[in-house]
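example protein:
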Amino acid sequence: MRDTITPEDEQQIVNAIKEAENNTSGEIRVHIENTCDIAVLDRATQVFAYLHMHQTALRNGVLFYVALQSHKFAVLGDAGINAVVPPNFWNEITSLVIGYFKQEQYAEGLAKGILIAGEQLKAYFPHKGESDVNELKNDISFGKD
């Protein structure tokens, strides 16, 4: 995993998260692991719960889930954001990100997808100024494998 996602890649992804969250009260996390042996949305749902993403005040967390060796990717939004985004929104981000992944541009793809998600979050969940609290970490979580 660490031979695919370099420290520079990690920094690019974290910077995208910070930039996206500067304009919204929404929360974005990225989880990367090597393998996924179940349906990708089922695994993303497990990770979403493990990272306590459902505990944001407005239920506006978004998870970018990647299983590198299994070639699986999913974007999962919480109930608050899913209630307001257009029906194909997550599919559009998924297609964009996978396009970058096919060129082995993992950090670039994730960064672009994160920034697009941030724009949508901004539209529905604008930043609350100084009263806005970062409810979830901005770092990437990594699986054990």
Q: What stands out?
A: The chain has one domain: 7-142. The mean pLDDT is 87.
